Amino acid sequence: MAALPVYRWRLAPDGYATRRQLRAAGLRPGGQDVAAQLERPRRRRGPLIAYLYRVDLAKPVRPMTPGRWAALAKANAARRVCPQCGRDAGYVIPSSLGTCVPCDSPSTTARSA
Fold first, then answer.
1. Each residue of 8-50: pLDDT tens digit?
2. Does residue 60 contact residue 52 with C-beta atoms inside 8 Å?
3. What's the rounded mean pLDDT across residues 53-75?
4. CA 56 → CA 12, 27, 61, 102, distances in Å?
5. CB-based contact 63:33 (threshold 8 Å)
6. Taking Cα atoms as reference points, which of 81, 109, 6, 88 lies closest to residue 49?
7. Number of neighbours of residue 38 by Cβ within 10 angstroms
8. Using CA of residue 59, residue 64, residue 68, residue 69, what is the dihedral sign?
9. Nearest Cα residue to 28 out of 51, 64, 50, 58
10. Predicted TM-score of the model (pTM)
């Protein structure tokens, strides 16, 4: 197995991009393997590593179909429903709480009422 070329932070040649950079350009890796590696040194820990892909081999992002839009809307709606009281909270329920704020701390809502 051949070793990946490693570039220092901000010194990668043109023609390489990270996943985020590809996505911002409307592209995706398209099944290609990682072409290079970017390292950003840190003082007290190991370096941050970003994988680079070749831009010329990248493919356009697949468009969202109506079925995908519907599935995404349904999933986001489910994240707003409190599993304890069954109401739409009006916001995405934090996973740290697991329920809406009134169900999580009923003593504060009882005092305010």
1. 999 999 999 999 999 999 999 999 999 999 999 999 999 999 9
2. no
3. 96
4. 15, 10, 14, 52
5. no
6. 6
7. 20
8. positive
9. 58
10. 0.67
